[in-house]
Design brief:
The protein has 543 residues and is α+β, with helices and mostly antiparallel strands. The strands form 4 sheets. The protein has a 6-stranded mixed beta sheet with strand order 1-5-6-7-8-3, sandwiched between helices. Strands 10-9-13-12-11 form a 5-stranded antiparallel beta sheet, sandwiched between helices. It has a 5-stranded mixed beta sheet with strand order 15-16-14-17-18, sandwiched between helices. The longest helix is centred in the middle third of the chain and has 21 residues.
């Protein structure tokens, strides 16, 4: 029986485009030693009963061979010049060993999710090859991103923002409700979607364009009432040595904010990502980056696909910052709130670290900081987090909390930093932690207590039934015995201090403690029972 292969089509697609067609719900990238732009020209179905044989440029679907049984197909694919191999994994431990073999063979390795069918990936891959055309989703989504970025930048700078391409054509601008704030230049630029030629000539005479062409620094342009021009800041949007456009901030009726330069620098770096996608006509690139980033953060995908895709060094130090809203009310806020928060985080962190990557995993926002200096310290990372939480409170009225995950030696250990960031956020949201930004060393006790409480909440069998009965008694009788016991224990047995917190007489507090002991049989004079009560009574009431 010959392998079920099809002749390669005349036009292929890149692995990147194929991944976009398949979607991350179907396959995950485990290794891509030749990058994501390797060309795929056909699909081969490999029968486990036959010798594995492929054609150059094919994507081999290894049906019926899991784990170690897939090694021959991987090696044969490398020998025959195939572009990639798709396998199913028996367990998470197989991914690393198979990835090493794929790298040695020089072929991409994709893993098919356990619940997915081979017919799905076969049909979708062949359909993508039949189309043989890169996807072009149009300009609408990207322009929306730029308008959102312009609005975020306007909030951070307290100014009026416009984003232009390298030919001074207006791509996006922020909203302004007060027409008196807008000077004649901005009005004419927006109406004509391009800066007036007379003013552009003036800027050239002042050397503004020369500065923007050669420098990443923000330039300030004084007001000129005689020309109908208010004060402005400008910064180049750059990709390497190439200028892609400019962001302009006009001062309105109020002065620009103190940190406008920093916000503008971060906005320029975020805008560069959008304009690079516009030039390449691959707005899906950001989706793929987010998919690879999410896979790395969750530990489902190794570091190599993301590092290859973005051209970053996987062996440099890295860390993860986590952001979460401080109240449940904000979690349920409209999607616009989430977008504004993500944009704000993106702009601020890009100003501090050029390679930073931001993704949202509801309801949390994660920042991956790859390629960190080896001398980076936690105080620096705390400072970056504090700048973002301060800006979110000041400009958006959002109570963001920030956790600083541990600095790891390379991208391979990023899941460890993400897990630590989540542990910190969980504790910050459970306990009354008096800080908006924390690393593990700052709230080690709170983190451990939070995890013990999580264990108690998910395992009722390890709780003391007497304490459960006490809480239930309060619920039936609208009592406060459990609250009184916990306050008394938190006060280290100081009756007067506990009574003051509860706004009751010390004798009332003593009576409640005796009543709780009588009802339940608790002996609060015993250290073990006191310790368990202090923990279990911190659990939230059952629904």
């Amino acid at each position: 029986m010959e392998p079920a292969a099809v002749p390669p089509p005349t036009a292929g697609i890149s692995l990147r485009e194929l991944l976009m067609a398949l979607g991350d719900s179907l396959v995950e990238v485990q290794a891509a030693p030749a990058g994501l732009d390797v060309e795929i020209r056909g699909v081969a179905l490999l029968d486990p009963e036959d010798p594995p044989t492929t054609q150059p440029g094919e994507l081999a679907l290894v049906i019926g061979a899991r784990g170690r049984a897939a090694y021959p197909a991987l090696r044969a694919a490398g020998r025959d010049g195939a572009a990639g191999v798709v396998v199913k994994l028996d367990g998470p431990g197989q991914a690393a060993a198979l990835s090493e073999t794929a790298v040695e063979a020089g072929v991409a390795l994709l893993s098919l999710r356990g619940e997915a069918r081979w017919e799905q990936v076969n049909e979708l891959a062949r359909a993508a090859l039949d189309d043989a055309l890169p996807g072009h989703p149009g300009e609408g989504a990207e322009e929306g991103d730029l308008f959102s970025l312009a609005q975020t930048t306007a909030i951070l700078t307290s100014g009026i923002v416009s984003i232009e391409d390298a030919a001074n054509r207006v791509l996006a601008y922020s909203r302004s409700t007060d027409s008196d704030e807008i000077d004649d230049l901005r009005r004419r630029s927006i109406l004509g979607w391009q800066g007036p030629e007379a003013y552009l000539a003036t800027l050239r005479e002042w050397g503004v364009f020369q500065h923007l062409h050669s420098s990443d620094e923000v330039i300030s342009i004084d007001s000129h009432p005689e020309l109908g021009i208010r004060r402005r800041l400008a910064v180049a949007i750059r990709s390497g040595d190439r200028q892609l456009g400019t962001i302009w901030v006009q001062e309105g009726s109020t002065p620009l904010s103190e940190r406008s330069d920093q916000a503008l620098l971060g906005a320029a770096r975020v805008a560069a990502l959008h304009l690079v996608r516009r030039r390449r006509e691959l707005s899906e690139d950001l989706t793929l980056t987010r998919t690879l980033l999410a896979g790395l953060l969750e530990g489902n995908t190794g570091p190599q696909p993301l590092a290859t895709h973005l051209g970053i060094d996987a062996t440099r130090p890295a860390a993860v910052l986590g952001f979460s809203y401080g109240t449940t009310e904000v979690v349920a806020a409209p999607e616009l709130t989430h977008t504004e928060a993500t944009n704000l985080v993106s702009v601020h962190i890009a100003a501090r670290h050029r390679s930073a990557l931001v993704t949202q995993v509801d309801p949390r926002i994660y920042v991956l900081l790859p390629q960190l200096p080896r001398s980076i310290d936690m105080d620096t990372l705390r400072g970056w987090g504090r700048e973002i939480t301060d800006a979110a409170r000041r400009h958006l009225g959002l109570p963001l909390r920030c956790s600083v995950g541990c600095v790891v030696s390379g991208l391979r250990d990023v899941p460890k930093s993400r897990r630590e960031a989540d542990r910190i956020l969980d504790a910050m949201l459970r306990a009354d932690v008096p800080t908006e930004v924390a690393a593990l060393s700052d709230i080690q006790a709170e983190v451990l207590i939070s995890e013990v409480l999580t264990l108690l909440s998910t395992h009722p069998e390890i709780r003391d039934p007497r304490l459960t009965a006490l809480v239930a008694h309060d619920s039936r009788h609208q009592g406060r015995l459990a609250e009184t016991v916990l306050t008394y224990l938190n006060s280290l047995g100081d009756v007067r201090a506990a009574a003051a917190q509860l706004h009751v007489h010390p004798n009332t507090l003593r009576y409640r403690i005796r009543r709780a002991e009588e009802l339940t049989g608790l002996e609060l004079s015993r250290p073990d029972q006191r310790l368990l009560a202090m923990l279990q009574l911190r659990l939230p009431p059952a629904d």
